[in-house]
Amino acid sequence: MTEPIRNRLDKLLSDLQPEIDELRVKAHLAKKEAQEEFAKWEAKVADYRARADQTGGEAGEIIEEKAKAIAVELRDGFDRLRKIFRNP
Fold first, then answer.
1. What is the residue range of 58's domain?
2. Model-level pTM greater than 0.70?
3. How many structural domains does the chain have?
4. Are 45 and 20 in contact (CB under 8 A)?
5. Model confidence at 46, in pLDDT bands (50, 70, 90)?
6. In a 3-state reduction of DSSP, which class is residue 64?
7. How far apart are CA 65 and CA 83, in angstroms?
8. How far lies 35's CA from each of 8, 15, 41, 54, 88, in Å?
9. Whose C-alpha in 20, 58, 68, 75 is 20 to 30 A from the C-alpha of 27?
10. 27 near 34, Cβ under 8 Å?
């Protein structure tokens, strides 16, 4: 993977980290449904990080498109968690 693409992927993860940390705390305090939903999305983040480390042979554009799709999916999941926290 080229260095600029890797840097963008790292920035994407860094940008998501504050939200992940905030939701981890809220999920710990929330009802079981929120904890299960958060666990699912936390696993997706871990999977994304693992796949980003293993994508050295893929074309940069494909990697970037996958990263964007995953980021949208993660943000949608975080939005669902926020809704759960607002409506206990």
1. 3-86
2. no
3. 1
4. yes
5. confident
6. helix
7. 27
8. 29, 22, 10, 29, 12
9. 68
10. yes
Average per-residue pLDDT in the chain? 76
Report the C-alpha gap between 42 and 23 in whole angstroms: 10
pLDDT digits (tens, 9 = 90+) for 4-33: 888 888 888 888 888 888 878 877 776 777
Count of CB atoms situated within 10 Å of the CB of 11: 10
Q: Which residues contact 76 (CB under 8 A, 6 or more apart)?
A: none
Task: State how far the Cα of 14 lies from the Cα of 10, in Å rounded to an integer.
Answer: 6
Only one residue has tokens 């999941």, namely 77
Phi, psi angle pair for 87, to nearest 5°: -120, 70
